[in-house]
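Marked as duplicate of an earlier ticket. Keeping the data here for the record.
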Amino acid sequence: MKKIQYIISLAMAVVLFPGAALAGGAPDLAAEAVFLLDEGSGKVLYEKNADLPMFPASTTKIMTALLLLEHAELNEIILVGEEIDWIGYDSSTAKLKVGNRLTAAEIIYALLLPSGNDAAYTAAVFVARKASGFELMDIGQALAVFAGMMNERARELGARNTNFAVPDGYHTPEHVTTARDLALITLEARKHEFLCQAAAATEYYWQGRRWTNTNRLLRLDYPEEYYPWATGFKTGYTPEAGNCIVTTASGGGRDLLAVILNSPRYALWQDARTLLEYGFQSWRRYEMLVAGRQVFTAPVRGQRQGEPETVVIVAGETYADLFPAEDIARIQLNFAWARGVTARGGAGLVFKAPIRKGQTLGTAVINLDGEVLGEVELLAGHGVKGFRWWLPVGGAAAVAIGLLALMKGRRGKRQAAA
């Protein structure tokens, strides 16, 4: 195969992605464990101790809310029972009381906004009893069943370094997860529109009580912590876990999911803002090839008279991905052409007719610093008919036959006259 290399210039990269050449390095964060994901591409943009088992504190409630939503209708009534007396003495609560009746939707708000451990225990006992079909199951057994359900769901989602023991995240030595696992759990939770809606709310009123969201990234009344692109999801804190947050943000057609575990109190919000800004500003979506769009044109030889002198080469599929902004200028395209489609001799790339519309002419190989990132077929955007040598020969033969017939006819007439 003949190869031609085309290198994207730095100037083009700067035009397509303003500021790309100025992108900085990885963020400097105080948190012990960090994970940043671009949801659309599934690309991990940054990680730090992402698989280290950590105490998740109340970010646990993302799983609790998910299981409740998967086992109850939003308008289903849930009765608060004595399970709320089982929570830790210094727990955050939604101030629920035994005998309160709430819908599943209201319980989810109570879980995600004021981070109510009482709501978590209420949800856990309700789900365990309903899933088991044993409505009189005692509280202790129900909590154990729910913990098993949490762990089973975590395994189904690929969260294999997680062991849940309680529904609220109150410190328990064996209750651990990882930044990566929390991201997997949150991705599943975000498939439910209602959970996204609840996690994005800054406040919710229930029976005269005002529940406010502990996520300051969402709240204008905390201007130093507020982040305008934030869309959710859940905070957490215990002395052992430190300050934790799972947060999502949307902007520029992209959705980011960040997990921060064990950040110092003074650094949590700055860590979150810095990490999200890094994801949006230091990474760019680069659409290098677009299906059906022209890549370039090249001359053609051997075409029939009246046929095009060039062929338009188009991409067979789209190639787009996220890249660190500073890498874009170094992306290269190598072209490898199929056997027999190019003409020999002459300067530069020349294709030979005939060419069919949609014919595979070669492959574009995308690479960065010698590493192949992907390959895309290159197709003919239109056909070019080839020169047929037998047409002029056939034409001459027809003329000769016609002359012979004419001469023979005249000879026959002379003989008849004689």
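See parent ticket for discussion. The longest strand covers residues 242-251.
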